[in-house]
Amino acid sequence: MARVTLYLVRHGQTYFNIYNKLQGWSNSPLTAMGIADAKGAGQRLAEIRFAAAYCSDTTRAQQTAAMILAANTLSNQVSPLSSPFFREQFYGSFEGENMNYVWDQVGRPHGLNGFKAIEEKYSIAKAKDLMKEADPFHDAESNDEYWARIDRGFDLIRNNADLDDDDNVLVISHGNTLLSLMERYGQGKFDLSERPANGSVTRLLLDDQQITVLGYNEK
After folding, report:
1. Are 147 and 176 in contact (CB under 8 A)?
2. CA separation for the pair 88, 175 (Å, rounded)
3. In which order are the strands placed within the sheet that holds 81-82?
């Protein structure tokens, strides 16, 4: 495959972001600020020529992708490919619940209060497994289930025969996914206590062997 640079943009702010609700496979509309987030990212990336674009099949990601590409006159032949492989982590029966409440429920059996305490004692990866354990339906994605799906998204890009070395690819991503990528590939170089901002850009170098982080949460 080609060696390409991925520009991962966190979708614009949504109402569930404002309400502090878990929003994985569930969805809520972009706010006025969320539209501004997307348009701002579009302005910052307007001079980047994208050879392809991908996003999850949630409307918040699709709308963000559309606004970024609309501002980019160098990529006017590119249409985003939507796929469930690029969705955020699935939170199972906790979808749409208050974020602080859920992470307290997840951490309490282990003597921990909240996501930060779980992440500090264990990891973001372990937090996924603990959520699956705490979910009464056990539908929340485990760490292995999550990465099996996300890796299929990267393989979708790797298998794009139209991409050439040094091409740029736009990917609309999600907050916890970006944190998870930094934990897995960031080699401890990035502050994971700071959530990526809506509309921020994270850059990865992707080839057939590995993923290398070039930049995180750039605004």
Report:
1. no
2. 8
3. 81-82, 50-55, 168-173, 4-10, 201-206, 211-218
Fold annotation for 4-89+143-218: Rossmann fold (3.40.50)
Largest CA distance in the chain: 53
The rounded distance, in Å, linking the Cα atoms of 114 and 38 is 30
pTM of structure: 0.97
User: Please, is 123 exposed, middle or buried when counting C-beta atoms within 10 Å of its C-beta (0-12, 13-18, 19+)?
Assistant: middle
Per-domain boundaries in the chain = 4-89+143-218, 91-140
Angstrom distance (rounded) from CA 170 to CA 164: 14
Residue 76: pLDDT over 90: no
Measured in residues, the chain has a length of 219
Q: Give the pLDDT of residue 66.
A: 98
Question: DSSP character for 162?
Answer: T
Q: Which residues contact 63 (CB under 8 A, 6 or more apart)?
A: 11, 12, 30, 35, 38
